[in-house]
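One thing: mind reviewing this one?
=====
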Amino acid sequence: MAWRVHLSNQAIQHLDILPGTPDLLAVWTRNDAINYYNLSDGALFGDTQLTPPETFDRTSAEWNDYLTTLKAPNDACLPVVHWEDLSIYTSPDGTMRLYVEHASGKVAIQQGDKTHTLPLKSPHSLAFDAITGTVAAIELSGQLHLFRDGKTVGSFDIGLKPEIGLPLQV
């Protein structure tokens, strides 16, 4: 854990292991700040300061240009990027993305030129398995919803009543 010495005075938001040449550990210290460390020896490999897109219009050329910047120095796609208005979850090969619009609660999964809006009203917690295309979401109503490839697999009352501010993960 030599990388931990470099960050001893900084809070860590989350970590991602990014396979590639070399394998990297992405250490997020803010939503827009990432330090990369070689996974095998902990040596600093570089850092990135992300800039939010100028537009959230996913049909624009600017948006496609922006998506190409969401890669690590080893060319691995960043698995998740959080902005104030939007979270983007990306598959390892970059062919599938899940978009969560925070203000509206709208959740959409995009694969190639096909986009499916998922029928969610108020997702409180969400998980995305980019390898299988599976999305699990818990709504404020306490319903667990499962989707695969943009289609509903099932909805279940799990007996929880999530609250705003209560951390709950799928």
